[in-house]
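In this supplementary section we document a worked example of the pipeline. Step one takes a protein sequence of length 82 as its only input; no multiple sequence alignment statistics are reported here. Step two produces a three-dimensional model, which step three serialises into structure tokens for compact storage. The input and output of this example are shown verbatim.
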Amino acid sequence: MNILDEKLRSVLADVLDLPAAAITEDASPATIERWDSLRHMSLIVAIEEAFGITLDDRAMDEVMSFAGARDAVIRISGRRAA
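The serialised model returned by step three reads:
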């Protein structure tokens, strides 16, 4: 696992009040019951704060899964996944 994944997994775990191990590659509102609309908005804010970015409309749509959130962070911040 790379640093970006670890940090993002930690952010999701904190917002969703779950252990980091529960945040898998396919984590999404469909797989995590706690991931409701209110926590989703909290997740958007937490990702922006953790990575020092502002998510655009496209990114907000992408943040409907762990993998999508990672892709959005990479695209907006210019970070690499490795």
